[in-house]
Amino acid sequence: MRVSIYLFREEAGDFEDLLRDFPDGARVPERRELSDGVDLDCEIWVMPQEPKPPMWAKYVSPLVEISDLKNANASVVVFFKVSGRFFAVCFGYAHSLLRGELLEPEFGLRVTANLADPLKVAAMQVRTLSENSRQQRSQTANKTRVAEFDLEVEREWLRYLKADISGGVDWASGVGGSQSLSLTTSEDLKNFPEILSSLLSEFRSDAYKEKFPYIDNFVPIPKGDPVQDELWEALISAIEDPEGRKVGVACPDDLVGADVAYWKIFGDRKRREPIEELTLQNVIEQLGNFGTNREKMKIIPLNSSDEAIRTKRNLSDYFVFEVDVAGETYALCLGQWFRISSDYVREINARVAELDDVTASLNLPAWRKGSEGEYNLATCQAQGHIHLDAKNFMIGGPHQKVEVCDFITREYDFVCVKKMEDSATMSHLFSQAAVSADLYSVNAVGRGVSSVGYADNVKSLYRDKWGSPDSVEGNRRMVLAIATDKPGPISKSLFFFSKVNLVQRAADLRKSGFRVGIAKIRR
Length: 523
Prior knowledge:
The chain is of the alpha+beta class. The chain has 3 domains: 2-220, no CATH class; 227-340, no CATH class; 350-522, no CATH class. Helices cover 27% and strands 27% of the residues.
């Protein structure tokens, strides 16, 4: 038997707290009395369903009489109270009956991590915590160790884990979990209090840190947690006065290449003009009383024909925000709050601080107006660099092209320039640099007019302007030049998730034989 098990948070005080509210007129679950002789501290609720013709009946009925065939998917949940905590053991679709805000958000994940054999992992799922969130699930034909999954588990939120149970457990064979725990067992339900007691002990244990130390890097905050009120108040305060705050807006959907003509904010009966560019300032100007209407306000992207490109979403899903509360770091992403491990924050900040800040030595001019292309061209003309912005190196197929960097200095600095708009923009900058460095290190051969090697092409450009690069090539450096009006050094003003990305890409750059530098461009 495979069952789904949920653990309620300590705030759940009685069985009557465990079911969600049902609207008037809706079908409600029914409580069933325990059979004679059953002595368990539990309640059983069922959600019967009226038999209905199967969905495929209308296609088959013209050929044969099947009116007697009906489907009904009844669900049942068994609530147990064990060691002062409430559990839900669900069958069918019974999870939809539960009061979601009272559930432990990572019960299944932590129990699975404690019980799992780290050499017999079957599946993992991660999500990137940024506005352009990417989910990736990886499953192997044969159970294996985590390294075989090729997932960046140290910088992404581990959402799901499935594995065989390690030795010493005889009441289950396999586990998998995120919020709920999926358990494969042959035990009778009468024995579940003992099993649930063991699961509670596993949930409270931190033994998983030896096998899966990155699980605590990002911890989702459940909706019922009191700290959420303080976090939302902090966001509202940052929106009212964004100066010096790590707050921004970004589309949580992948709209690359989409014809977005404008954005529309609605939900509080206030008339607004469309937004042509999704910026924090443009959104703030339209908000009105966001604190009062936060849960009502929606946003939707439309094309030039006034057609919705994506479904409407809560406006709060578009905000990205970081804040420190009571010594802890919290981040908002896709409308979900996360607590970031203080140890992880210190580690990332320390590794970013180790990067060479070459702002002073590079001495790039301030970016006062114009586009990125205009800035790069003007900088090269003023300082004599090799201008490479938008001059792509063709490699592979006809649509595979790479920009080496925006310009190269006489000291053999490969400078890549971007405005600090959001973490997605920073991710593009860091990835562009890492790809270019990798191609340089292997001297990848291009196609067409770029049929020379990648590194050979760069050296040729340098030689045409300054002569042989031999004396400087060994000290080549990739410089990530970031334009911002935020005060202080770049290492202090980046969003945390951008810092995580930067640390990873810096390691990739070093593997490709490049030194790494960061530089601030004043705006």
